[in-house]
Amino acid sequence: MFKSNKQPALPLTTDWTKNLRETSFYRYGHLRSLGVTGEITALAVDPVLSLLGVGTSSGVVHVFGQTAFQFSLPISSPSSSKAGAGIKFLTFHPGHHRIVAVDTGNTLYSYSMQEISEHANPSTHPPLPTREAHYTLWGTVTAVDQPLPSHTHLFVTLKDGQMLAWDLSRGALGSCKVQNCWGEYEAKMVRSGMPGRRKTAGGPMATCLALNPRDLNIMLIGYEGGVVAWDFQKGVAVKNFEMFLPPGAPGGGSYQNNDAIWTERTPSVTSLTWRPDGQVFAVGHSDGCIAFWAYSEPDKPLMVRTITHEDVNVADAESLYDAGALDNQRKGKGKDQLDKDGVPIPSAIMANREPIFKLAWASFPDAAAMKLLAAATTEAVEPVTNASMDFAERGETLLVILGGQSPGERPGINLLQFPAYIPPVAPAKKTTASSESMPLQQRYAYRDSLMPTGASNYPTKSPPEDFVLLPRSNPYFGMAHDAIALIVSLTPDKRLAPIDMPHASRAMEAFVFPPQRSTEIPPALGRKTFVQPGEGENIVAMSPAPMMSPNPTTPTSGGWRLPWTNSSPLPSPRLRVATPNSIMSASGHHRPRARRHYRIPSSIWTGHLSVLGCELVPLPTPSFKRLISWSIETASSETMPRLPLHGGLAVPDLQSAGAPDVKVAKLESYRVLITFHPDATVRFWDTSPQLLVLPTPLRFEYPGPLPHLTISIGEYLKSPDVAHLPLARLWETDRPRVRIKSVHLAREALECVITMMTGEVIVTKFAEAKGGRADDEVEELDDGDESLKSPNGGYFPPTPTTPAAGGNDGWVEEVTEIQHLARYSVDGFKPVAIFTLKQGEPLACAVSDIGFISVAFASKSIAVLDMRGPDVILREGFDGDGQVIKKKRRKNQNVQNVVGEQSVVGRLKWVVSGMGTDSTPRPRLIVSYAKGMTKIYTLVNVLGEWMVEAKPPTFTNESLSGPLGTFVLDPTTGNELHPTADALSAAMAHHGTPEGKKDVPPHCVWIAASRKSIRAAVNFNGERVAKVEFEDEDLGEAFYVTRYGQKILVGITTTGSVLAYSLPFLQPITRMELSFGTQGRRIGKISIDDRSGDFVEYAGPLDINLRTLFHFRKPLPPRIDPCAFKRPVPAQPIPLTASGIPGAWLWGGAPLSGAQLDALVAGPKRPPPLPPAPVPKKPLITWGDPPAEKKVEVVSPTTVAPKRTAVKKVAGPSRVAGERDDVYSEMRNATEERGTYMDQLNDSLNNASVSATNYLQQARNQAMKEAAKSTVKGVFGKIL
């Protein structure tokens, strides 16, 4: 127990708060929301402005452009009477700079990005695009077509089968209303008496629509029963496309479904897409098959296939026999076919496929256009990849397929690679009956263009739910022309740790597009040797599709390659047969090549990036420099670059009222936000306020990602060296239980300690890179999914043969060193050790900068770790085997094991200070128990080894039950006595007052905060300086804040009230409510920057906010211009003739222009256009200029007229002399100087090499001349 002798108190004049006693210095404010606010429900891109839009279930659209540009636009905001409706459909209007959204309430919204709102208080009303119009439709919207730059109408379909047109330029509904065309077609078929025809109950629902990319007059509308072609000029449905599956044909289903296999079926239409030439379109169906149609022939499809099988609309007797579908037949078993990784391909016998959810037909410019793009060197133009050039040279296209997979297949986006369409050499005479609309030669040419020359896929961690392609610049062809990225939203991953609060479970991934061209032709499975005969046709054998020449179609003779590659273009195989390396071949178990990823914008925290918890950590400048140096030095050569978005401009707001002062902002502390996620990763983000102020325009993301610092627990647990640990076995058998409890960072030592819910403690330490980066790390990236590395891997991980966690009761070491698992190719946190203490869930953890770590567990036990070993130097309540200690230690027992207390621990704190009458600073651990007892462990160094002193002093006070915080302060300055390396060195050299002396001056002040009180005492056991008690409310958090050298104690109640107290006498200063309303609220977990008063409140994965207690001169929301970056809008694509060349449209007449389409759809009573966007009051870039200081002019009386002369304007200095640079500028300048020095050194070496070569050449020439002279002299000497 503490001694009761009274110690001297502090002088009454002691004041560490000073000017912060003024209540006007306190103002609660919201700085920024972090992450997204709801589940991802819609994706959209604008290639003209180079923007990405993400719609959420909360009714907010998040828009991202270049690194510093982003904004969150509330489309359907919640009200007091109802919650906000989620975003169902989202699209941009390229060329017209609009955002168009449809929410779940079927209300259509249109926002103009050319007009940005302005408000007197930008902190609460940030600059955002303004709403143009909104309209609530009377039915459920089922599909939205992508609007084009050439016209201004948005076409939508309703559940009742209608198609409507919304005039975006007028903000009104157009006069064009297309009724349920398929319902009329069904009624016509029923009236005709055709057997088996009936009407759809409730009317056929419209499911999708697609405008012809080269003829604006034709719109395809997909219904449950088929597809209708609508002619805008005629105002009628001109064609109907209906796909039947005859009895015996499997379609996308199974031969084993005897109830359906012998019936005629018409699977529902789920998706539509046009081939870029506008002559062929693909229709996805609900059974997983895809029907390809020529627009000129609505009688029957050109081909019906699944991802792996062709002609599934034809009955195959052999497959029926193998499936046992015939009567009086024993069921046979077909031979499994394998893909290139040895995975069996589900045969049509077993393939019950999912629907085709979405289709996109990607195309590429010709080789000449690609060469021009490759020659462009601007940052806004993405470099042309070899894959894009390969497709462009051959004129090939890619059909991107979402859905259509069988159970057990690896989830992902599948692609079929099609050759260019080659028209017949000469149009022959019609060889079919008069009812057929297409000659056989034409039909064969179309079919040949639909025979895949390759197949590939983008494997994903969980089944994909939606995707969009990001074009390089072209907004036509369904946003699928010359795409450079594939953005995918994923369904929830069941392997992730469960989250018991609202969160966004759908993740996002982005891939480089297109993939490498496949040179392995998939075998044509299914009924591949016959065509379905039509009227007047004969059954003929299908010959292989004629392949294009392996040489490009450009005038060059050889294959054109990019200058940084040495390989020549691979020729396309000429024979359509399975090769040993075919994608369907059984030979070779090759590891699948993971597709190269793009990094998504930093604030999309969804799916595996959902935040389970976060810590805001202010850092000293040297430590911060060490952490971010790698990201700055490798900014132009990232292993995983950011998604190539270049749109928008963001400028810091330095002109509005309350704007920050740049000079003061540079003095703010640097800080990082540490987040941990369900995939057992820890990620780091730069949240320094300087990112929102410097430079002009802004250049950095906020929060700024630091991917090189990411800690992946799974990477450690996959190592065979730790496979025996319970946590590693749990990772293999029950991965959702591997969940992070908390993360702690030592600010100077940069040791990151991770506690797991299962009780393990993982320690990592920051270290710089050693050696160069491996070459293959740039070329190929592994997404960390084990299912991609295993040939038989699927969505659910395989069950290992090792015993499950908990099934092996064998001995496991307490400390497992894992330094050898570190990778030093980049800067980052390297693994040090895993502590398996077997004490259950951790409740508290404290780290220090002197190598000591303490952890308290739910089993009422404590462990003290010394990382110099590493070793466990104290176990309170358990022994080295993890067993509970119930009796006091005997003399011959281990002094490191002590009996535990009958209370769990509330808080732990490391300090270097004196205690009581011992003024010698020593490392001490303050343990605050939940029942009000406090225990102080002292560490001493004995012969170079650190040990914990026996019989630690304790102090019990019921008012300290429920501890919240412990702070030990310097009695002179009020600074916290942190356990730093400098403090430990000073303590080792210190000779304090001998213990036992009564007259000890104050050497520390101990402040203890609990739920019901705050106490301050001198020297721990000295006189109580001050005390505050709470009767009607409870404290939830307590923080010690230092702002510009002035200190306060901040307490936050459980209902969201902030109480500020002076120091050291705890006099109340002010009270603030952490809400803008009148009602209090429950607060989330608070993590505070104790140097600035800014804090992050974590109330859930969808409610993470950066706020402040001192809302003065804080960074305001930046001023934005979404239209600052604009690419030129190309002209509407020209229709093609039957021969495939630009010209008049195949069906006669001039093509319809966008203006003509608008006139047809809008009707004669079209309202006037919306007023144009007003001109901004001032240029956007001027918002980033600090306000000029007003100069006082002294006017002297004079009678002489002033002489007016022209004054030459001179630009002012970019910065004031002696002004401090921020860390980012310093490190960028250092990197640039080093690069310049290296360039100069390289030039010098080149010059030296050239000089040496010239000198050698001159020496050789001189030697040759001398030799010639001597030869001539010799000859003439002989003659003479």
From TrEMBL:
<dbReference type="Pfam" id="PF08596">
    <property type="entry name" value="Lgl_C"/>
</dbReference>
<keyword id="KW-0853">WD repeat</keyword>
<dbReference type="InterPro" id="IPR001680">
    <property type="entry name" value="WD40_rpt"/>
</dbReference>
<protein>
    <submittedName>
        <fullName>Lethal giant larvae like, C-terminal-domain-containing protein</fullName>
    </submittedName>
</protein>
<feature type="region of interest" description="Disordered">
    <location>
        <begin position="773"/>
        <end position="797"/>
    </location>
</feature>
<feature type="compositionally biased region" description="Acidic residues">
    <location>
        <begin position="776"/>
        <end position="785"/>
    </location>
</feature>
<feature type="repeat" description="WD">
    <location>
        <begin position="262"/>
        <end position="293"/>
    </location>
</feature>
<dbReference type="GO" id="GO:0006887">
    <property type="term" value="P:exocytosis"/>
</dbReference>
<dbReference type="GO" id="GO:0045159">
    <property type="term" value="F:myosin II binding"/>
</dbReference>
<dbReference type="GO" id="GO:0005096">
    <property type="term" value="F:GTPase activator activity"/>
</dbReference>
<dbReference type="GO" id="GO:0019905">
    <property type="term" value="F:syntaxin binding"/>
</dbReference>
<dbReference type="GO" id="GO:0005737">
    <property type="term" value="C:cytoplasm"/>
</dbReference>
<dbReference type="GO" id="GO:0006893">
    <property type="term" value="P:Golgi to plasma membrane transport"/>
</dbReference>
<dbReference type="GO" id="GO:0005886">
    <property type="term" value="C:plasma membrane"/>
</dbReference>
<dbReference type="InterPro" id="IPR015943">
    <property type="entry name" value="WD40/YVTN_repeat-like_dom_sf"/>
</dbReference>
<dbReference type="InterPro" id="IPR036322">
    <property type="entry name" value="WD40_repeat_dom_sf"/>
</dbReference>
<feature type="domain" description="Lethal giant larvae (Lgl)-like C-terminal">
    <location>
        <begin position="738"/>
        <end position="1169"/>
    </location>
</feature>
<comment type="similarity">
    <text>Belongs to the WD repeat L(2)GL family.</text>
</comment>
<keyword id="KW-0268">Exocytosis</keyword>
<dbReference type="InterPro" id="IPR013905">
    <property type="entry name" value="Lgl_C_dom"/>
</dbReference>
